Amino acid sequence: MTRPLRFDPQVLLAVQLECDVPDLGFYADMVLALTRRVLLNINIDELICNLEKVVTIECDDKSLVRLVRVLLEGEHVEYTVRVYELMKTNGWGSRFEIDEYVAKVLRRGLKRFGKEEMVDGVDQ
């Protein structure tokens, strides 16, 4: 009989914070798990706060679109906006070329959330 693997999300977050460049795929997986209520003892706010504490994120990382999509699918308006602001702070659209797919996903999500004023800024 196999036992399900148990882990402490706080340990996972601590390990992730030790990395110079965060693995956005890790964050997407954690948000998805939290959205599905798998992990009850940490919350998405704490996860996004930890991501904001990191000096830099890779805006050309394919995991970025996963994170944005998971936030949008979970209807996490505030967190989507915070990640978008973090992307802009880290050079999305200036240092990094705007990925059209990420921009499309963001535009649709922000429109759905009624954040029309932010939609125009996605392409700039």
From TrEMBL:
Q: Give an example GO biological process.
A: Group II intron splicing
As one GO molecular function, the record gives: RNA binding
Query: Which interval of the chain is the signal sequence?
Result: none
Residues forming coiled coils: none
> Gene3D superfamilies annotated for this entry?
Tetratricopeptide repeat domain
Q: What name is this protein filed under?
A: Uncharacterized protein
Source species taxonomy? Eukaryota, Viridiplantae, Streptophyta, Embryophyta, Tracheophyta
